[in-house]
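Note to self: keep these together.
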Amino acid sequence: MKLNDGIAVTTTDYGGVLLDQRAGTYWQLNETATVVAIAAAQGRGPRTAVDRLVAAFDVDRDQAEADVTELTRQFVAARLATP
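Structure:
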């Protein structure tokens, strides 16, 4: 997954924020979604996001893969990213 042009991500004390500069809208992200969004902003694949989630949180690989798959689906559906 890759964030689309005009989409920015930044971290905050509580997770992160995705800003759609094209529409002037934003989404607050929890810590998991922030890790996935940052990986996407860096042009990394889902495996990188999964590895980062497993390393940062008490989550097994299967759950991390399911979370990344669902977040990817949501980001693409919102036109924030391309698969």
